[in-house]
Amino acid sequence: SNNLILGIQGDDNLGSMLVGTVMRKVKSRTWKKQRYFKLQEDCMTIWYKSKKAGKPHSTFSVGDLEGVREGHQSEVLLSLADEFPPDRCFTLVFRGRRGNLDLVADSADEARSWVRGTRKLMESLESMGERERLDQWIGDWFKKADKNKDGRMNFKETQDLLRMMNVDMNEQHCHSLFTMADRSQTGTLLDEEFVLFYKMLTKRDDVMRVFQDFSGDGQKLSAADLEDFLREEQLEAEDAAGHAARIIETYEPSDQLNAVTFDGFLMYLGSAEGSIQDPRWCGLFQDLDQPLCHYFISSSHNTYLMEDQLRGQSSVEGYIRALTRGCRCVEVDCWDGPNGEPIVYHGHTFTSKILFRDVVQAVDKYAFKASDYPVILSIENHCSVEQQRTMAQHLNHILGDALLRSPLEGKGLTGLPSPEELKGKILLKAKKIGGLEERVGGLTEDPLTGEVSDEDEAAEIDNEHSHRETFRRKTKVVYLDPCQPLTACPVPHRGGVSMQKSKQHLSKELSDCVVYCKSVHFSGFKHSRLHQKFYEVSSFTESKARKQLRDAGGEFVLHNSRQLSRVYPSGFRTDSSNFSPQEMWNAGCQIVALNFQTAGEAMDLNDGLFRQNGGCGYILKPSFMRQPGGGFNPEAPQNRESYLPQVLHIQVISGQQLPKVNIKEGSIVDPLVRVEIHGVPLDQGKQETRYIENNGFNPVWYDTLRFTIHTPELALVRFLVEDYDKTSRNDFVGQYTLPFCSLQQGYRHIHLLSRDGTRIPPASLFVHVRITELA
C-alpha cells in the first residue's frame, strides 16, 4: 500500500484524520456519546474508542464503506436537526446490511476534513490494481500477526497467523517455508520476506498445471501458446491474436516481449476477463425500448422495514438502501397519521412509524443514483380521503416533473411505454377512479372522490389466515360462484369478522397521480384476456401465484406478455423471510417483491439476475415469453419451438483464502462446494463436491458436476461454499450467482460474495466450465 500512502501525503484533510478527532457518535435523540476517531498509519483503517479507560476500541476498514453523506441525511441526524447544524453532521454508510455510523463533529471544518478525507481514501482504494490490493491484504495480515509490533514475525507469530488465515499446516512444513523465506537468516521475517513466505504458501499448483500444458518451454507462454489456450480452453476464438497481445500488455509484470510468465498468467486468470461471468454482460447491453411488461423489474416488499414484520424498525433507510442497490419498485404502506400527516408502517403491528413525506423525499433524492430507469412506487393505501389529498400534494410538490402525471405524448393508448421512454420518471402503482381513456378524452365533469373496491395485501393476508382458521375448525367451506359480481363476496375483515367487500373512497388528486399502473383485482385469465386494459396491474400472494402457475402456467406466461403482475411474500412470513423468486420469473411475472433486508438464497438469486445489464434494475425477458403466440409453459419447457437443451459440466478445481466462519480459536473450515441450478422445475438441481478437512486456505477438489438444462435462458447458476459439519447444519462461507447464459467457458475464477452480497477479497474458487448440446 506504499503507492496509496505516497498519493496521500501532503493532504491536509488526511493529516488531521491521522492526528485524530473527538466526535459524537449518535444513535438516537438521547444516545449521543463522545468517541475518539483516528485514521491509522496504513491509511486504510479507522480506529475509535470511548474516552473512558478500560473500554475496548473498535475499528473498520475504508473498504467496508459504501459512501459518506453530508448533513442531516439519516433519520437520527434529522431528528436532531434543532440541536446540531448540518455542516457539523455526516453519516458513514457501510456496504451490505451493517448499520450506519452517524457522527457530529465539534466544528464544520472538522466535519469537512473527515468527509473529504474519507472520500479521497475510498477513491484511492477503488483505483488500486489487483496486485496492489493483494499487497495491501498481505500487509493487513502482517500487522495483525506482529503481536509485539517490532516489524518482524517470529516463527510462533507466523504459526498463529496461519491459523487466523484458515490454514492448518504441520509444523515441519511451516518451518521449512519459514527458513526458505528468512533470507536475512535472523530467525524472523521482515515484511518483504513475509511477502515471499506468503507467495510460497499460496503457490498455485493447479494453475501451474494448466500453464505447463500450454507452455513450450515451461517458463513462459509465447503469444502463440496463449492464442492456443484462448481458442482451445477459453473458447474465445474471435481475434485470438489481438486478445493474446492485450493480455500480455495488461497483465505481464516483467519486461518479457510477446510472452507471459506464470505471474502474468495468474493475474489474467484472477481478473474480470478471467472471471466466470462474461464482463460484456455486466454493462448495459440489452434493448430497453420494449414495453415495460417485457422486463423483470427489481422489486422490494415492505421496503420501510429493516428487520421483521411484527416489531421491526421502520426506516427511511430501507428505501435508500433498496434504491441504491438498483431496486426499481418499492412499497409504501400508508395509514392516517396524527396532525393530518400520513404515516408509513406495517399496519396493525408494533413496527415503528415514519412520515410519508420523508419517504417521498428519500425517493426524490435516491431514485436515480444507481440507475436512470423508472421507479415504481407501489402504494398500499389505507388513508382517509383527506390524508390521501395530503399524499397527492407531497408527491406533486416533492417529486415535481419526475412524477409521471399523464400518458407520454404521442404514445396514445396502444400499450405500455418502455423503460427507455420513462427514464428519470417515477410512476405510482395504486387504485384509480376510472381509466386512462377518460383522461385522454378530456372529460371535464370529474367527481372529487370515487369508490373503488378495497383489495389490498392486508385483506389478502387476512384471507390466508381465515382459510387456516376455517380448516382448523373443520367447518364447511363455502366456494363462491366465480360468475357472481365481486361486491357480493364475503371477505374476512382484519378483526376476523366476515363482512361485505368494503368500498374505499379515493381522492381524485391521488387517483390522478396513477397513469400506467392501475391496481386491479385479478378475476381469472379469461376475464383479463377479454376485459383487462394494458395499464392495469394485478397483485398475487406467492401462494395464489403458485396455484395459477400449477393450474395454467402457459396462460400465466401469456398474461404477463400483455400485463404487469406483482407477486409478494405470504403474510405468514412475519420473520421477513423470502420465497424463491425463480418460480415467479418462470411465469414471466415482472414485479417479484422480496424483503431486501433479509439475506439468503432468494436475495442471492435476485442479485444474480439484476447484477447484469449495468445493474439498471430491468432485465429483458426471453423472446419466447414476450410473443403472444410463444406457447411457452414452464411446466413443459420441451414443448416450445426453439427448444435446445444444454449440458453444463463444471469441474470444481480449488478454493483460495476462504474466510473463517467460526470465530472459535483454532477452528478451521472444512469446505465443500455446492452448485445449484435455479430455473424451470425440470432444471432445478444441486450437486456438491466432497468436503476437504481443515483447509480453508487452498483446498483442492478436482470434482466434476454435470447438469442438463432445458431452458438455459431462464436458468441461474449459484456456487455456494459451505463449512461441512456432520452434527449440525453446514455454515455458509460464500456464494456467487449468475445467469447461465453469462457463463464464460474454460478455466475461470469465481470471486465469492458474503452473505449480504458484498465482496470478500481475495476469496475465490477456480473451476473449469464446458457447455455442450444434449446429444
TrEMBL record:
Listed transmembrane segments: none
Protein name per the record: Phosphoinositide phospholipase C
EC class name: hydrolase
Chain ranges of the C2 domain: 628-754
Residues that carry a glycan: 184, 186
Residues that bind Ca(2+) 3: 302, 331, 333, 380
Domain PH residue range list: 15-123
Principal cellular location given in the protein's record: cytoplasm
This protein's UniProt keywords: Calcium, Cytoplasm, Endoplasmic reticulum, Glycoprotein, Hydrolase, Lipid degradation, Lipid metabolism, Membrane, Metal-binding, Nucleus, Repeat, Transducer
Region (Disordered): 444-467
Gene: LOC115547957
Organism taxonomic ancestry: Eukaryota, Metazoa, Chordata, Craniata, Vertebrata
Domain PI-PLC Y-box: 510-626
EC number(s) on file: 3.1.4.11
Originating species: Gadus morhua
Keyword Metal-binding: yes
Domain EF-hand residues, every copy: 133-168
Residues at which Ca(2+) 4 binds: 668, 670, 694
Catalytic activity, as annotated: a 1,2-diacyl-sn-glycero-3-phospho-(1D-myo-inositol) + H2O = 1D-myo-inositol 1-phosphate + a 1,2-diacyl-sn-glycerol + H(+); a 1,2-diacyl-sn-glycero-3-phospho-(1D-myo-inositol-4,5-bisphosphate) + H2O = 1D-myo-inositol 1,4,5-trisphosphate + a 1,2-diacyl-sn-glycerol + H(+)
Active site: 301, 346
Composition bias type Acidic residues, residue spans: 452-461
